[in-house]
Design goal:
Largest sheet: 6 strands, parallel
Distance between the termini: 73 Å
Shape: globular
Strand content: 5-15%
Structural class: alpha/beta
Radius of gyration: 24 Å
Strand order of the largest sheet: 1-3-4-5-2-6
Order of helices and strands: HHEHHEHEHHHEHEEHHHHHHH
């Protein structure tokens, strides 16, 4: 090797190192995604692995089995719907699966929040600008769903071994939703929803429905104590925690909110349990207040207004009025 070649290589290497350092400082998300055990990992900002996960091992196994159904994947995408009542742990389970099986989807993992059409479109736009479109197309293509959604589904159709998660989807506007449903051999599609009436619907790739049962009493108790940081609970802690989770209906989301509230106040578990059990089911609306506070931090005025409407009308909700806005 000549001295001039060595100098050139050394210069190029220095430039490359500086370039990588610059990119890492400007686009940290891109670098993190590139280091993931898959070609792409597109997810919402702040999306992290579960800090706690209890039970659901059977559901995790079923989910993996159905998402890798050989017969379905040989013809197109294998679709699964995780369904439960609100607060039942659908997203929690899906997130656990995704982080456990990232390396099983070399074509990429794409998580899109789909609770509203606006969120769904925003998620598809991020996929478009990250992987589906060239930089020149991004600069010239109007940010209109009619332009970029088809680009994204075409990209999915021409690639394989990916997983697309549509979290919190509502199938009530199925005509509009169909344009967002991609198909490709040897790939997987995962929905989470409170709705269960699309199992076997070919418009949504004939999803297999996994209905989440309630956590068992022991699992709910363990989750609550872990949320409180009590790794070695006393007999009294175990007793009071069991009473509480029974009153909470064994719902993971309610358990999480109650534990968070208890940690913030520092109230003794026994005292908290007595007040919770003697008061109304939501213990002076602690759960409602916690959720509302979080929505206010996120400036989610529409969600707050909807909560207030539902509370005002109690169980007699005029659905058509809400649908009409």
């Amino acid at each position: 090797m000549s001295k001039s070649t060595s100098l050139i290589n050394s210069t190029n290497i220095n430039q490359l190192v500086q370039s990588v350092a610059t990119v890492a400082s400007i686009e940290p998300d891109i670098v993190i995604e590139a280091l993931a055990p898959t070609s792409h990992f597109i997810k919402p900002h702040g999306f992290r692995p579960n800090s706690l996960f209890v039970g659901r091992e059977e559901e995790l196994q079923k989910l993996h089995k159905h998402l890798f159904n050989k017969a379905k994947r040989s013809e197109g995408v294998a679709a699964v719907l995780i369904q439960s009542i609100p607060g039942g742990g659908k997203t929690h389970l899906a997130r656990q699966y995704v982080y456990k099986h990232l390396s099983d989807f070399p074509g990429g993992v794409f998580w899109v929040t789909a609770k509203s059409m606006e969120q769904l479109k925003a998620g598809f736009w991020r996929i478009a600008e990250t992987v589906a479109l060239k930089p020149s197309q991004i600069a010239t293509l109007p940010r209109d769903p009619d332009n970029f959604v088809q680009c994204v589904t075409d990209w999915f159709a021409s690639h394989h071994e990916w997983l697309l998660v549509l979290d919190g989807i509502h199938f009530s506007h199925d005509d509009e939703l169909r344009q967002f449903i991609p198909d490709s051999k040897n790939s997987s599609l995962l929905y989470t929803s409170t709705e269960k009436n699309v199992g076997g619907d070919h418009h949504f790739m004939n999803p297999t429905v996994i209905r989440l049962p309630q956590l068992s009493a022991r699992e709910a108790q363990e989750l609550f104590l872990l949320e409180l940081g009590k790794k070695k609970p006393s007999i009294d802690d175990l007793t009071e925690a069991m009473k509480l989770v029974q009153r909470m209906g064994f719902l993971p989301e309610v358990i999480h909110v109650a534990a968070k509230r208890l940690k913030e106040t520092g109230e003794p578990l026994a005292k908290f349990a007595r007040a919770y059990n003697q008061g109304p089911k939501l213990r002076a609306l602690d759960t409602f207040v916690a959720v509302k506070d979080q929505l206010m931090k996120e400036n989610a005025s529409e969600a707050i207004n909807l909560m207030q409407i539902i509370c005002y009308f109690a169980g007699n909700i005029p659905v058509e009025m809400i649908n009409l806005g």
